[in-house]
Amino acid sequence: MTETRKPGRPRSAEADRAILRTTVELLATEGLRGLSIERVAERAGVGKTTIYRRWSTKRALAEAALQALFTEMKSVADVPETGSVRGDLVEAAAVRMRAVSGTQFLLPRLALESESDAAFHRLVNKILVEPTRAPIIEVLRRGVERGELRSDLDLELACDLFVGPFLYRLLVSRGNLTEVARMVAPALDHFLRAAAPEPR
To answer: Which site among 22, 59, 60, 82 is 20 to 30 Å from 200 CA-CA?
Structure first.
């Protein structure tokens, strides 16, 4: 029996990747409000109809792009255990900066835009916030178990205190990842001194 071929062109995985990556880049610079199918098509080098065949609205396209980013970030979320909290956190910072290179303004921009949209806020939190926090909290938990960090350490709060300075520096330096990278070692030293167990 001869298989009936479905109408329409087959989807191109390469085109999908180009469209979704371009969408993430534009979300980082323009936000959801400034995103347009026309600009995505132009920058991705595809026709508008190619995008509309896949996603009927820019909201659907944005959500698909963020889901793709989530999958990519999950693939680098695990932090290798180097044997020390300091080594683990240095590696975690390096992994995260590589992951956000080119899209470092994505989280603050979308966080502001999603304030009035509960569903979009949950999506942004799931995709951009949770993958960043989970490996840091795991590193801190291992540090407590090894006795490198104080036993009463509030892991959630400690994660905020560790990540916060880097997000602040990212904003005030206008996304300069080199400047952020330079502060990793000194900021980490201050953090670890504050979180160290009290002398017996």
So the answer is: 82
For residue range 144-160, what is the model confidence (pLDDT) as tens digits?
999 999 999 999 999 99
Q: Which of 113, 134, 24 is nearest to 72 (CA)?
A: 24
Q: Which residues contact 6 (CB under 8 A, 6 or more apart)?
A: none
Higher-confidence residue of 17 and 134: namely 17
- Domain range for 44: 11-65
Give CA–CA dist 79/132, Å, rounded.
11
Query: Per the domain annotation, does 200 fall within a domain?
Result: no
Instruction: Please compute the mean of the pLDDT values over residues 82-95 and round it to a whole number.
Output: 89
Which residue, among 114, 6, 3, 119, has the nearest Cα to 53 in the 3D structure? Answer: 6
Number of folded domains that form the chain: 2
- State percent of the chain over pLDDT 70: 90
Q: Which domain CATH number covers 38?
A: 1.10.10.60
